[in-house]
Amino acid sequence: MRSEGIGVVVTSVLLVTIGAALAGGGAYAATNWVVGLSAGSSGLAQSGTVSNLTITAVSTPSPANVLYPGGVGDVVLTISNPNAFPVTVTAVNLPTSATYATGYTTSALTTTQTGCLAATPSGVTWSYATGTSGSSHSLTTALVVGASGNPNNPLTVTLTNDASMATTAPAACENTFFSMPSLTGVTATGGSGTVTTSPATDGWTS
């Protein structure tokens, strides 16, 4: 009799469990009760902050075209983008044509070259700079700097022949490395784009 009692109890448990499973399955079945959406139902999104780019002089790769009196030469730099999205640069703004570069004894740009300073003047300026500060010069090809953490950020760029040396440059400026005058701005926008592979070659021609 005890054995039969145990059998009845087990059978009851099994029946209850199966019934619960069937009841749960029925809760997800389609019914005739249509549920709508309250007016004003929405969700939250947030835009990111925008930080400025940083442009820095670098010595690698070495300029292929070097300066001489009356000639032009390459400028090598990096563009760093701290933003969480790519930034496309399409133009740069230059200081005046009377704003000169300072010469240094090595590519580290730590020790100035005597007799070849901006105040001397060195005679080295940005190519196509004008008498007006902030003149805009379009790049031949737009540069897309990857988001922060992208392997192509910072982006190394060689600006072909975008430095100029006047015929009046002093002899002290021979075999000298130049820190170009600070750019006054850039034309750049944030958003999607195919990131430019570093190192790149670009520049402006007018």
How are the elements arranged and paired?
Blueprint: H1 2-26, E1 54-57, E2 72-80, E3 87-94, E4 102-104, E5 124-126, E6 135-145, E7 155-165, E8 177-179, E9 185-190, E10 200-202
Parallel strand pairs: 7-10
Antiparallel strand pairs: 1-2, 2-7, 3-6, 3-9, 4-8, 5-7
Characterise the protein shown here:
With 206 residues, this protein is an alpha+beta fold. It has one helix at residues 2-26, and strands spanning 54-57, 72-80, 87-94, 102-104, 124-126, 135-145, 155-165, 177-179, 185-190, 200-202. 12% of the residues lie in helices and 30% in strands. Strands 1, 2, 5, 7 and 10 form a five-stranded mixed sheet that branches. Strands 6-3-9 form a three-stranded antiparallel sheet, with no helix packed on it. Strands 4-8 form a two-stranded antiparallel ribbon. The longest helix is centred in the first third of the chain and has 25 residues, at 2-26. The model is unreliable at 1-23 (pLDDT under 50).
